[in-house]
Amino acid sequence: MKRQSNRKMNSKVVLFILTMLCVICLIISVTVSSFFAPAKTIVSYTVVPLQNGVNAIGSWFNSKSDLLKSIRKLKNDNAKLKQKNADLIAENSLLSQNKYELTRLRNLYSLDKDYSEYKKIGAQVIGKDTGNWFNIFTINRGSKDGIKKDMNVISDGGLVGIVFDVGKNYAKVRSIIDDESSVSVSFAATSDTGIVSGDLKLMDDGVMNITGINSSAKVSEGDMVATSQISDKFVPGILVGYLNSVKKDSNKLTKSGTIIPVVDFQHINEVLVIKTTKEELKD
């Protein structure tokens, strides 16, 4: 009996202790929350903004990092685009050059057919005298290619000039616009003759002198002028140009004027050399 009463007492003590603990916990929760309320307020005004600031700084650095990555990517993409653009420009330039060269070669081929009665050899211009005009220039063909002095040179649809100096692998050409050049010509429509002479100053106006036309010759502007049969060094029938102007001379016996040459003497790249001289034709 004594033991049972002791057990009941112990249970009551435990229950009482547990109850007291619950009450104490409730009291503490109420008192402590009110006690730490000012601290919570201070924390809310100090720690929270600080934490927000830290978060903002972290976000800023993160955004800047993303921005730097974007800038690096843009720079890389820009560099690639610039290189691609440079490659396209180079490719376009090469295509333009090839097209221009093809056009020139086609013109030479057409010219070769126009004067098919003469044996010819192609050559490239590798040098020229100073100045705007191709009055004296050098080609990459010489004696080893069968080039001789006084061979006629044609390009761009008509007469360019004549070979006056020959080396083993080069030759020099004096064009018909040079001050020391003169060509006996005839008019295709009337067979009247004249002399076309070079004048570099006059070439600034794009024309050449023509003199010695018979006063009775019925020639007019636009008439075709070609090398004549009576020329000493130029083979006959090579187009020189077109009559630009004509008038009677003061002696009333002859006419003179100007012609527009068919060749562009500011731009000569390739030529054809006629491998038959006028002297050989005579023979």
Tell me what the structure shows.
- With 283 residues, this protein is of the alpha+beta class.
- It is 43% helix and 27% strand.
- The protein is built from 4 helices and 12 strands, in the order ααβββββββαβββββα.
- The strands form 2 sheets. The chain has a 6-stranded antiparallel β-barrel.
- The longest helix has 78 residues, at 37-114.
- It is rod-shaped.
- The relative contact order is 0.11.
Give the tags:
283 residues; alpha+beta; 27% strand; 6-stranded antiparallel beta barrel; 6-stranded antiparallel β-barrel; 4 helices
Q: What Rg is obtained from the alpha carbons, in whole angstroms?
A: 50 Å
Q: For the report, how would you describe the main beta sheet?
A: 6 strands, antiparallel, barrel
Question: Kindly state the mean pLDDT as a whole number?
Answer: 82
User: Strand order within the widest sheet?
Assistant: 1-2-5-4-3-12
Structural class by SSE content: alpha+beta
- What share of residues are in beta strands? 25-35%
